[in-house]
Amino acid sequence: MTKHSMYDGPFTGGKDEDRVAQDIVEKEAWLRSFGMAPYTSPSDYNISKVNKKRAESDKKTNSMFSSPPAARIILIEDAAQNLPACEKVPGVLSAGFKQHLEGLKQDCLTSVNWSGACSQVSHAIKQHTIDKVVILGSASIFSHTGEYVFWQHEMGFVLAIFELAKQQAQSKKTRTPKLYFQDPSFCAADHRLLQDLGGQVIQDPEAFMRYIDEKTLVFAKCPPLTMYFQDLLQTRPAVCISTDLKQTIDGALYLQSKYSDFPPNFDIRGTAESFMIGRQKAELHQAMHHLYPSIPDRGLDNFLVNMWVYWQGEKVDATREAKKVGKLGNKAKKWLESL
To answer: Using one digit for the tens of pLDDT, what is the confidence trace for 98-152?
Structure first.
């Protein structure tokens, strides 16, 4: 794919480098609190700023988190007082972190805060035999722009989706589905972590060529528009949970007219229409107000903002199931508005 000029140079997510460095130090401290080796993949980011922030953090916390030499990235072997002993290899899943993510998964499956979205997904997959769950673009927790607050809750939701697929397979007495992840930002530490969580990392474009078919559930939160239209929509997954297709068409048409991302003759609207043939859809509504009560903008309370579930429906039951899934979303939306 063509690289935009706006992406030239190290990517910092719109933050200045000092803010990024501070976020990295906070994220590493958070990882260490669960016994994970605090690690940040250097990539193309100037890690020296992080070393400076680590040193400042050491002074504030009376050396609770020891700052490694500049020649090393991070591999802290000594355990700080009042903190669990850390794994020595970045990405190896600690017992504490496993328990934390398991708790978030169970919260998604059982809490009223998540019942709307999980019920919608469950209804969408119940008429299919899902043998693969493919997660596209889940982002690296170890990258210099990785935001751990959103990452942990998105991972909890992903693991809950996978659990729903496994429960469906068990009820139908079919083989247990497999979990796959694909993101170009993954480093070796991500590979270890995702494998320890029961997943497997696959490479682009392998995800689209070998793993997505009529027995696949795809979860792709905010995928790049080029990948969305040229790759994902060309596949035929049983269930696709992704960005609102209708809203992305205008953005894709703009990129096609202003940049070289899309070939001039690529039919964006036709691709979207072809993808929707025989497919039902419903908007996912899920509140995060209980996680961020201090955020005044209600738009940020919705963890799955602009996310929809698209699924292939059986002709007899398609209309009934579409109404049922839609009602679940409306119920969750009304609950959110009442907060």
So the answer is: 999 999 999 889 887 677 778 889 989 998 999 999 999 999 999 988 889 889 9
Residue-level pLDDT at 60: 54
Sequence ranges of the chain with CATH classification 3.40.50:
95-337
**Integer Cα distance of 178 and 193 in angstroms:** 16
What are the strands, taking DSSP E only, across 34-76? none
Cα separation of 311 and 177, whole Å? 17
Q: How far is Cα 99 from Cα 321, in angstroms, rounded to an integer?
A: 35
Name the token pair of 301. 């309370």
HSE of 35, CA atoms in CB hemisphere, 13 A = 12
Q: Output DSSP code: residue 287.
A: B
Mind listing the pLDDT tens digit for each residue in 149-190?
A: 889 989 999 999 999 999 999 999 999 999 999 999 999 999
pTM for this structure?
Answer: 0.79
Residue 226, CB half-sphere, CA atoms under 13 Å: how many? 13
CA angle 123, 183, 5 (to 5 degrees): 120
Q: Is 82 left (phi over 0), alpha (psi -120 to 50) or beta?
A: left
Look at 307 and 16; give whichever has higher pLDDT: 307
> Which pLDDT band, with edges at 50, 70 and 90, does 47 fall under?
low
As a whole number of angstroms, the distance between CA 296 and CA 289 comes to 10
CATH 3.40.50 is the classification of domain 95-337:
yes
Q: Rounded to an integer, what distance in angstroms lies between the CA atom of residue 231 and that of residue 224?
A: 10
What's CA 157's distance to the chain center, in Å? 9
The pLDDT, as a whole number, for residue 65 is: 42
Q: What angle in degrees, to the nearest 10, is found between the helix axes of 17-33 and 48-60?
A: 60
Contacts of 229 (CB under 8 A, 6+ apart): 248, 252, 262, 266, 268, 271, 272
CA dist 31 and 39 (Å) reads: 8
Residue 151 pLDDT: 92
User: pLDDT at position 338, please?
Assistant: 59
